[in-house]
Backbone:
């Protein structure tokens, strides 16, 4: 009986993993991360300041200060967090390389256990284990993916991602401020709340429609989380109420 070709065994091991960390999903995540963070933080701030003072100028200045500092901070966080993920992956990669060299029997047994858990057994299991451990690069990939559940972190386009997150934060932060630029404090506050609520719900719904999930639940989830966070800022403003004179 003809034996299975090695590639028939190795193909799923090598290629059935690690979707590229690029594309609309990654960009949408960066946009939502920045936009939601900026909108919620600045809305909470302006509501809190509006509860403490009726001076429009004070609210706008505080909001703009938060807008630009938050935008820069979020862009920086997007950049440094991706670098941290890459560094962690590389440290684990080096550790696995050393273990394969120093304790190959232990690592071979771990490969066997991984594929036993996937339902392989007997001769098929041993053939797969032998095939994997005969190529150290494949062996290493299997350990990183199936034991540690880690994928390579690409830093390609990282600066662009950081800029995208920062710009999204800037845009999101400006939304709560728009009513205060054209209306007195009280009506501006009344307008800002439903405006931001509608934006939060719309972003959550769009995320689900673009990726996966129920758009109503996704929109409602983002709305509740965002407005609860903003309401905390309002409560602080009320608790620390000062005269606007």
Residues:
């Amino acid at each position: 009986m003809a034996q299975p070709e090695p590639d028939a065994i190795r193909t799923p091991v090598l290629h059935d993993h690690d979707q590229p960390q690029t594309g609309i999903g990654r960009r949408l995540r960066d946009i939502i991360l920045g936009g939601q963070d900026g909108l919620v933080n600045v809305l909470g701030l302006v509501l809190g300041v509006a509860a403490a003072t009726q001076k429009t100028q004070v609210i706008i200045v505080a909001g703009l200060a938060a807008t630009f500092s938050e935008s820069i901070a979020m862009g920086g966080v997007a950049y440094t967090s991706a670098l941290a993920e890459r560094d962690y992956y590389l440290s684990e990669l080096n550790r696995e390389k050393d273990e394969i060299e120093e304790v190959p029997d232990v690592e071979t047994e771990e490969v066997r256990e991984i594929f036993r858990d996937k339902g392989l057994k007997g001769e098929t299991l041993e053939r797969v284990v032998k095939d994997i451990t005969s190529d150290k690069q494949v062996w290493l990939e299997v350990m990183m993916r199936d034991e540690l559940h880690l994928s390579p972190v690409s830093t390609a386009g990282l600066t662009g991602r950081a800029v995208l997150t920062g710009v999204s934060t800037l845009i999101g932060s400006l939304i709560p401020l728009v009513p205060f630029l054209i209306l007195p404090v009280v009506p501006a506050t009344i307008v800002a709340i439903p405006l931001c609520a509608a934006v939060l719900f719309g972003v959550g719904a769009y995320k689900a429609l673009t990726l996966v999930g129920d758009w109503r639940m996704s929109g409602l989830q983002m709305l509740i989380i965002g407005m609860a966070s903003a309401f905390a800022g309002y409560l602080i403003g009320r608790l620390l109420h000062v005269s606007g004179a």
In short: Confidence is low (pLDDT under 50) at residues 1-22. Residues 35 and 172 are 4 Å apart (CA to CA). The radius of gyration is 26 Å.
